């Protein structure tokens, strides 16, 4: 029963021969590094360190983690859709990804509400879960179009992704005075956001992930050979973390803040 609930809520992905261990391990790499970055961010936010983690090498690190995370979401979509399209078509197929996208947006809204209550203002409006949820829904027309068939199709797919990324970088620099187009990357400078991943440029990154998935895993089948390391010690544990990346993402900040709170109590800095 718990497995079914976890699967329905996207918190749990079942093991099986149909899973590719390399994807799960890369998800693990992404989520572990995201936790490390958030730990560094929290230490600065709470005043434990003066290191600015929003500029320089730290910002490059954060963007690299997010890029990997979002591209893997696109790869996973391509693999999933390639397999699901053998069994369903049309609306029956689309509603699966519509439901998945809405669930991810729903989890993003949970983070929005929790941080709003904690901070007293909306500091996560378009976070990474909102973005991946929206990208899941918006990617379906692209998923139905198989670019791996010809070089022209690959070029078109690559061009679309790069164009969206370039447009996003441009819009991110455009000065605006209102937040109404926040989802497209138009953000007024005074608007503070903890976690900001607008559709532009990040949907372009997701599309590049879809392209990688369709080229390397056409119709959901790996087209290259890898050793069967999925059950090897170490790899299996990393894969388990990768399969639970959403759950880890949702709980890691409450755990970190709980630890900091206990530290503050033990050191007598709070009542």
Give a quick summary of the entry.
With about 270 residues, this protein is mainly α. It contains ten helices and no strands.
Write the topology of this structure.
Layout: H1 2-8, H2 21-45, H3 56-84, H4 90-119, H5 128-138, H6 140-144, H7 151-172, H8 199-216, H9 235-243, H10 245-266
Helix pairs in contact: 2-3, 2-9, 2-10, 3-5, 3-8, 4-5, 5-8, 7-8
How does this model look, in words?
The structure is a single chain. The chain is 66% helix and 0% strand. It is globular and about 60 Å long. It has a domain at 92-220. α3 runs parallel beside α5 (128-138). 30% of the residues are buried. The model has no long low-confidence stretch (mean pLDDT 90). It is mainly alpha-helical and 271 residues long.
The tally of helices reads: 10
Q: Outline, from the CA principal axes?
A: globular
Strand content: under 5%
Uncertain stretches:
none
Order of helices and strands: HHHHHHHHHH
Give the number of DSSP strands: 0
- Largest sheet data: none
- If you compute it from the alpha carbons, what radius of gyration comes out, rounded to the nearest whole angstrom? 20 Å
Judged by helices, strands and strand pairing, the structural class is mainly alpha
Helix content: 55-70%
What is the residue-mean pLDDT, rounded to a whole number?
90
Task: State the end-to-end distance.
Answer: 41 Å
Defining traits:
271 residues, mainly alpha, 0% strand, globular
């Amino acid at each position: 029963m718990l497995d079914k609930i976890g699967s329905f809520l996207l918190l749990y992905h079942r093991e099986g021969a149909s899973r590719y261990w390399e994807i799960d391990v890369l998800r693990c790499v992404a989520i572990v590094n995201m936790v490390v970055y958030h730990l560094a961010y929290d230490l600065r936010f709470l005043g434990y360190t003066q290191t600015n983690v929003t500029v320089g090498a730290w910002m490059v690190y954060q963007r690299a983690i997010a890029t990997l995370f979002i591209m893997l979401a696109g790869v996973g979509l391509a693999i999933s859709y390639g397999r699901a399209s053998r069994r369903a078509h049309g609306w029956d197929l689309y509603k699966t990804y519509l439901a998945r996208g809405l669930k991810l947006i729903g989890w993003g809204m949970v983070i929005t509400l929790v941080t709003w209550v904690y901070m007293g203002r909306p500091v996560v409006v378009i976070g990474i879960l909102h973005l991946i949820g929206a990208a899941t829904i918006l990617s379906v027309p692209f998923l139905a179009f198989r670019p791996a068939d010809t070089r022209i199709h690959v070029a078109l797919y690559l061009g679309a992704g790069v164009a969206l990324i370039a447009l996003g970088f441009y819009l991110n620099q455009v000065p605006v005075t209102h937040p109404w187009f926040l989802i497209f990357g138009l953000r007024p400078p005074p608007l503070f956001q903890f976690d900001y991943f607008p559709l532009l440029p990040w949907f372009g990154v997701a599309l590049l992930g879809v392209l990688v998935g369709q080229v390397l895993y056409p119709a959901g089948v790996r087209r290259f050979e890898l050793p069967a390391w999925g059950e090897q010690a170490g790899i299996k544990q990393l894969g388990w973390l990768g399969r639970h990346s959403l759950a880890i993402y949702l709980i890691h900040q409450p755990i970190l803040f709980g630890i900091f709170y206990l530290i503050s109590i033990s050191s007598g800095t709070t009542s």
